[in-house]
Design a protein that fits this description.
The protein is mainly alpha-helical and 78 residues long. It has three helices and no strands. The protein starts with a helix and ends in a 21-residue tail after the last helix.
Length: 78
């Protein structure tokens, strides 16, 4: 989860998108602001290894802390 300031910023963007009739899905779903790292029907890690390694090779190091790592199970879009 984001800190309160980042949470408010994300919700403000969601409200702008909704009020502009662009996309209201995040507000309609009532979810908290979050970071989606991947959306997959099937997890096939082997094909992703090369892409992840290429991304890592061209990205400067940075610190990233997770409050938790979780997943949504099922076939419905969340």
């Amino acid at each position: 989860m984001f800190d309160p300031a980042a949470d408010a910023e994300v919700r403000a963007v969601w409200a702008l998108l909704s009020n502009s009739n662009i996309d209201s899905s995040m507000m309609t779903l009532g979810v908290a602001p979050h970071l989606t790292l991947a959306v997959m029907d099937d997890v096939l890690p082997a094909p992703l290894i090369g892409r992840v390694n290429a991304l890592a090779a061209r990205t400067n190091p940075f610190t990233l802390n997770f409050d938790r790592i979780d997943m949504f199970e099922g076939s419905e879009t969340v």
